[in-house]
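Re: Re: ligand-bound prediction request (bumping)

Still looking for help on this. To restate: I need the protein modeled with PRP bound, output as structure tokens. Inputs repeated here so nobody has to scroll up.
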Amino acid sequence: MEDRYLTFALGKGRLANKTMDLFEEIGIKCEEMKDKDTRKLVFVNEKHKVRFFLAKGPDVPTYVEYGAADIGVVGKDTIMEENRRVYEVLDLGFGKCNMCVCGPESARELLNHHEMIRVATKYPNIAKDYFYNHKHQTVDIIKLNGSVELGPIVELSDVIVDIVETGSTLKENGLTVLEEICPLSARMIVNQVTMQMQTERVKDLIAQLKAKL
Ligand code: PRP
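Reply:
Sorry for the wait, this slipped through. Here it is.
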């Protein structure tokens, strides 16, 4: 048995539940975490010498970069936006969706003609990289914290950069996908020092998880 605890940071919500289902499949259980009423933040599995904690998604890469967590599970969108010094080691295959430029159909022309447009988003770094480095289009990026679809509806922005999963939020608000930026899914990230010091243990974990995907 390993002597050191391996610490996992999981993005709160659906992603964490799916991750724990996957860990159960390789024999790592944490019954306490299933209690919906618990306000506990850290959960320990003594047998496997692992502990889990739940964090806000955008904080997961931060915990992993600083080594407060050895391993994190979080969406590719968050990894791209936070741009932390961590290793991305595994695509877990769930939480699949796309990062897209969306808006009313009428905004398509503005995009095609590289007009100076306003872009509302929770992901200013991803939006900047896409418009400046890939499209070479100068835009005005406006950071929002949620319900980004409101942007074009209330005329805060011409388009949005956001996650599209089923497409129903767009549809119900008269918006559509105008350009696809990239596919997204849940990923496993590893602290750089952990990767060096615990190589075998981390590799073994990745292999076991891969076998279940
Ligand atoms: C996300 C995203 C879209 C929606 C897409 O929002 O920002 O609004 O889900 O899903 P759909 O294509 O299946 O409709 P989330 O629910 O995370 O809330 P938020 O708007 O507060 O970010």
